[in-house]
């Protein structure tokens, strides 16, 4: 580890849900769940108000509804998330030229590359506080949690400690005192499946992990991950902040000579592929947040759908559940000739720098789900010729209900229209260059 606390990790709090609450004033302070809107969808992000009811990332929409029936279930507006993320990343780049985004809502910043008088604890603490103020300002009120420490690993751990809307600075020299009582799951790359293997070997905390020899960990988890965890259990982590980094993914796909028509069979194939993806992820010490499926139809149209979780997974059963839910949103009635499952995003930085072995893989094209334009998924932006901008509160039986409010207005009125009302339009920003 470095001698100074020069690595900062910033994590926006309940990001997708927070953007929705910013843009939909009537939902502020209320449970909001992004994802899980269809009968078979999966929760992407739950607001803190919804988390109190036990709703979490990767949970099925059905279970989330059972736990928190009065929550607002929204389909997600990725243009708004991308735009807000860009503003945050710019604030970070104004501070230091070395910024490494991990996803839309998380990044590392190398403070040693920033123009600071020194890297004393008092100085970096003030930098972190000012950064949080700026993020709040440029995002229109979103909060972020910050961790500052002597390595990426510790900065990431520190940013989890005071969520939401907090900050933790780990003074150099105190890293192991902080880590030892913690559960092994704080280590990025230790997803549910790896955790289960460690648990069966009687290893729950980092203190316990520290007692295990490197040979034993390699025997238990394989060369790459065993060696990596042995180092992290000792807070040994000198990985640099890397400004430009490609997103990594692991995927499995298969093509078929005859078109598949049976939904149950397709789900079975996706489940098997998801388990294989999970196995390869664990072998490489990898866990990721974005689960994608690829489906080629009988007419060779290729569709990709993906779902992003707020915490990483390496668990085949979880990946399978999300993959099946994504398939549930597609019309495959004409038959399917290719199916594939992949996971990308986030915790790959662990694997790439520390564990060495690059997973052999095909890139998955990640396309965020954008429903067809004349449907009215809950949460999407609309404009009515007379009433102005609003968002879809719900729809059914030929009627769409809209709440007319924006980030700049107080909570607004609710009106219902016929679904084919020519005065009502979906609103999306112009396509990016
Ligand atoms: Mg976050």
Give a structural overview:
- It is a single chain.
- The strands form four sheets. A five-stranded mixed β-sheet has the order 5-6-1-7-8. It has a five-stranded antiparallel β-sheet with strand order 16-15-14-13-17, with no helix packed on it. The protein has a four-stranded antiparallel β-sheet with strand order 9-12-10-11, with helices on one face.
- Strand 14 (388-396) and strand 15 form a beta hairpin.
- Helix content is 33%, strand content 24%.
- It has 14 helices and 17 strands.
- It folds into four domains: 1-173, 2-Layer Sandwich (Alpha-Beta Plaits), CATH 3.30.70; 179-232, Orthogonal Bundle (DNA polymerase, domain 1); 249-353, Dna Ligase, domain 1 (2-Layer Sandwich), CATH 3.30.1490; 381-426.
- It is α+β, with helices and mostly antiparallel strands.
- The chain binds magnesium ion.
- Magnesium ion is lined by residues 11-12, 15, 105-106.
